[in-house]
Amino acid sequence: MSSHGYPRSLRLLTAGDYRHVFDTAVYKVHGKRLMALATPNSLGHPRLGLIFSKKNVRRAVDRNRLKRLVRESVRLQQHRLPSVDIVVLARRGLHELDNEAVHRQLHGMWRRLDREAHRQPAGRSDVVDPPAQASSGQR
RNA sequence: GGAGUUGGCCAGACAGUCGCCGCUGCCCCGGUCGGUGGAUCGGGGCGGGGGAGGAAAGUCCGGGCUCCAUAGGGCAGAGUGCCAGGUAACGCCUGGGCGGCGCGAGCCGACGGAAAGUGCAGCAGAGAGCAGACCGCCUACGUCUCCCGCGGGAGGCCGGUAAGGGUGAAAGGGUGCGGUAAGAGCGCACCGCGCGCCUGGUAACAGUGCGUGGCACGGUAAACCCCACUCGGAGCAAGACCAAAUAGGAACCCCAUGGCGUGGCCCGCGUCGGGUUCGGGUAGGUUGCUCGAGGAUGACGGUGACGUCGUCCCUAGAGGAAUGGCUGUCCUCGACAGAACCCGGCUUAUCGGCCGACUCCCCCU
């Protein structure tokens, strides 16, 4: 369990998972040309979803590169992150940043997210719903 | 050696480390079946091996595949457009013809029809379509006036003339001689052109070939149009299968002194018909999904595109979407750019490097 792998369980998989994060969105963290929405889950580890639209990042090569960077960052720092579902959104102009800059942005965002999660420990009803059931309730 | 044309190939390399997605070997755990050793499904660990492109792009053509439609034919619409071949097919490729560019190797061309019809052509210009007299040239014919040595001369009228100037993208063959008042295919020679024949060629087409016609039938068909040929529609979010929860439906059975839930049971409380089966079907999952008009190589046929046969090889298959992050070393300091059902093309983007043919120029022998 001390590994730094990136198995399927660390990802948001279904449209329902994404919907849940957007609907609740307890935490909101901004970086340079990046934004992350997050909401607590009861799984004991974070999960990541990515939304990099063609409108904001024009070329497929850049989209692939940037998504890899975000995943890599989450993979390496998964044990320092709180138990939340995160959706990272790209803003326009993100492709102009190089790998090092993106890594720095993400590092800072995770720290802020962690701090926020500790400041307002969401012990309310949000945590109780597992996202799988939340997705079914949205019809 | 320099300049250039053309065909093909490569797409930073290596090492360490941490990951991702298929495949595969062994081991472990769990479910089901079977039953000690097996089968199957799911998960995990440790090994092995594979993992973007020449354009993966634009989605501009052509197919395969899938579903829908379809007796046959026509119209409309769209597309293609020198000829022959190649191909599953094409708007692609090969060879040939014609025209243009280049000293050349080569390159470029929507390259059918304007003697079916309709239409269009700014400005300039006298005139632009069965043409036209602005300048110029001529005044022979007919006629009038004048002069004079009846011949002749000057001028006018009626005119003649497309050789020259000028306009234009384009002015109704060219050169020369004859001819004439001046001219003119008016006549002739040569060149060119049209038509018919002949010859060569599968054909497009070509020919110091033969005959014939004085000779435009102007341009535009990426204007309508005519002619010939081709084309049913939609797309992998195609399509197929499995299928929770909730609501609703159908059939059958049971019972309303009841059934169901709660509970070990009774009372109680809550609730109302209950149970079984079936089909449709949402979320979700599986499949379609990579062995194919496939590559490599050899032989044979063909000018070639390509075809036939033999041998060998298996080379991404994701799906919120893998093919990467970090570190180090080196060099020539790395462009354009990321598969999404699969092929054949075209077009566009692109740092550079390598190899093979060929052309021109210069130098040496």
TrEMBL record:
Q: Which domain of life is it from?
A: Bacteria
- Provide a Gene Ontology MF annotation, just one: ribonuclease P activity
Sorted alphabetically, the keyword list is: Endonuclease, Hydrolase, Nuclease, RNA-binding, tRNA processing
Q: Name the EC number(s).
A: 3.1.26.5
One Gene Ontology term from the biological process aspect of the record: tRNA 5'-leader removal
What GO cellular component entries does it have? Answer: ribonuclease P complex
Q: PANTHER family from the xrefs?
A: RIBONUCLEASE P PROTEIN COMPONENT
- What do we know about how this protein assembles, alone or with others? Consists of a catalytic RNA component (M1 or rnpB) and a protein subunit.
The name this protein goes by in its record: Ribonuclease P protein component
Source organism per UniProt: Halomonas cerina
| Gene responsible for this protein | rnpA
